[in-house]
Amino acid sequence: MSISGGRVQTSGNQAIQEENEAGLKLVLLLSGQLDYSMHRNRHIAVTGPAIHLSVSNRPFSVTHRYSTATPLQYVAIRLPVETLNQGLHIDFPELPATPHTTSDVPFFQDRQANKTMQGLARQVLLCPLKGGLRQLYLTGKALELTTMALASVQSRQPGVDDKGICKLTSRQLEALHHARHLLLATPSQTPSLAALAREVGLNVTTLTRGFRQLFGDSVYGFVREQRLDLAYRMLATGECTVAQAACASGYSDSHFSKIFQKRFGLAPHKLQP
Q: Are 156 and 107 in contact (CB under 8 A)?
């Protein structure tokens, strides 16, 4: 198994061809946008938060095109066939497939990443441990994330996810990304929904519905996640006390500890050096 991730900002529009070995590849894109093509298929655009899953019993190539508009934040997990068969005792036919999948054409699917998947990806990126414990932690989180992604693909029914989804214009999409950028820039000073809507040129209804549809969470839910991530980083580096982290996140001490442990799986005081 290989686990990678981080933040990528390109200096210019780039096209990169990636060679993948047979097996399973999962990419969770927390933010940013790219497009890719596989096995002579058309280019497919993916905007975070989203997951990309590909499964193939033969090596395959993917061409990625990166935009300079927004940096990419991602986690990538690769499980070769040998690891699936011998290490995890998973037979290849048990993995997702479609009626059109052949021995030469990999199965691939993209879909929105839910809050739990996003949380697991952030835990991978923000892991405070070192050495063997770090590898053990990352392996556990990667397997949990992969399991959730496979389960979501297998349980998906055609058309279900499309109900109730409104089509957004290019201008609305640009405005929603701008709103997200503003929230990321000032997580501790969140504007009201009305003020944010005015700033990006949308009405409140389009902002709230479009934001949830595009980014998988409400505006305030997104801000809450960013504040908790900030608190995690500050505690892990010793920049603040638990009380200060709670205040920065907008919680009382006791409530903060409960929310933090539920979100990251450990009490906040255990992160302090």
A: no
> What does the block give as tokens for 168?
């957004």
User: By the 8 A CB rule, do 73 and 30 touch?
Assistant: yes
Distance CA 55, CA 81 (A): 10
Residue with tokens 């957004």: 168
151 pLDDT more than 50: yes
Would you call 107 helix, strand, or coil by DSSP?
strand
Q: How far apart are CA 207 and CA 183, in angstroms?
A: 13
DSSP classification of residue 84: I
| Bridge partner residues of 82 (DSSP) | none
Torsional sign, CA 168, 171, 175, 181? positive
How crowded is residue 170: how many other Cβ atoms within 10 Å of its Cβ? 7
Nearest to 30 by CA among 11, 56, 51: 51
Domains of the chain: 2-161 (2.60.120.10), 164-271 (1.10.10.60)
Using one digit for the tens of pLDDT, what is the confidence trace for 117-144? Answer: 888 898 899 888 888 899 999 999 999 9
How are beta strands 60-66 and 72-80 bridged, if at all? unpaired
Q: What is the pLDDT of residues 60-70, one digit of tens each?
A: 888 887 766 66
